[in-house]
Amino acid sequence: MTETEPLPADRLPQHVAIIMDGNGRWAIQRGLPRLAGHRAGTENLRRIITASVEFGIKYLTIYAFSTENWGRPPEEVQGLMRILEDVIDKELGELHKEGVQLRHIGRLERLDPKIQEKVLNAVELTKNNERLILNVAFNYGGRDEIVCAIQRMIRDGVPPEAVTVDLVSQYLFTAGVPDPDLIIRTSGELRVSNFLIWQAAYSEWYITQTFWPDFGKEEYRRALEAYVQRDRRYGGISPVVSSGKSDAG
Ligand code: IPE
Ligand code: IPE
Ligand code: MG
């Protein structure tokens, strides 16, 4: 596949999830403060959202702040909160125009009430948009999500025999969203870091050494091209093997 060749629409992932990692190292490499890396990462996110719309991706989930990221120095945590607020203030109008539906996954409770209001307002404003569903994982943790789901099931009086894979999925923050087909992690770390641990059961992974602020449209395209070549077996065997003569006779 060359850069100009269109991506095969029928084989593209419906849902792409991204662990946007490496902002800090990107900044350190340039002798800049870590927050400058987060700002650069946010600018890149804008490009990747637009590219997702262009590529025809239906759902994009981005990991912006984990439940473990509270453990960072207070200045960095505050800086990340401010960035979220600025992004909503500056980009909401344009995202709305582009047909992006914003959703939040994670817990809002611990965030500043002013930020909570801005998030809820952004979700409300864009709720009828259909071009791209953008799930923003902010104060999100996969284990926290499962704990939250169990608490709500118990509160709702769900009987044990009614607990199924489908029901659990419906109690997660991602209810109604198909599982991610492709998960991209930038900056080369080989771990899940508490991201979509339930939903990622059969996701394909694309890991790159590139730091998030440098992960551009071209590499995004390469990740999609790599995905298109994958043979997703879900524990079965690929059709080519199963239809072989030796099986029949
Ligand atoms: C990812 O970049 C953004 C957040 C976790 C908020 P990092 O800040 O983790 O960057 P590195 O991993 O330290 O380079
Ligand atoms: C994962 O990155 C969280 C986000 C990208 C928001 P981290 O940088 O927090 O993950 P670890 O600590 O390297 O596992
Ligand atoms: Mg990191």
What bound compounds does this protein have?
3-methylbut-3-enyl trihydrogen diphosphate, magnesium ion
Compute the average pLDDT. 95
Rg over CA atoms, rounded to whole Å, is 19 Å
Q: Percent helix among the residues?
A: 40-55%
Structural class: alpha/beta
Approximate shape:
globular
CATH fold name, please?
A: Undecaprenyl pyrophosphate synthetase
Strand content: 5-15%
Helix-strand pattern, N to C? EHHEHEHEHHEEHHH
- Order of strands across the main sheet: 3-4-2-1-5-6
> CATH architecture, please?
3-Layer(aba) Sandwich
Euclidean distance between termini CA atoms: 37 Å
CATH top level? Answer: Alpha Beta
What does this structure look like?
The structure is a single chain. The protein has nine helices and six strands. The mean pLDDT is 95. Strands 3-4-2-1-5-6 form a six-stranded parallel β-sheet, with helices on both faces. It has helices at 23-29, 34-55, 74-97, 113-126, 142-155, 165-171, 217-229, 239-242, 245-248, and strands spanning 15-19, 59-66, 100-105, 132-140, 182-185, 204-207. Strand 3 (100-105), helix 4 (113-126) and strand 4 (132-140) form a beta-alpha-beta unit. The chain has one domain (15-242): Undecaprenyl pyrophosphate synthetase. The protein is globular and about 55 Å long. It starts with 14 loop residues before the first strand and ends with a helix. It is an alpha/beta fold and 249 residues long. One 3-methylbut-3-enyl trihydrogen diphosphate is lined by residues 20-25, 65, 69, 80, 187.
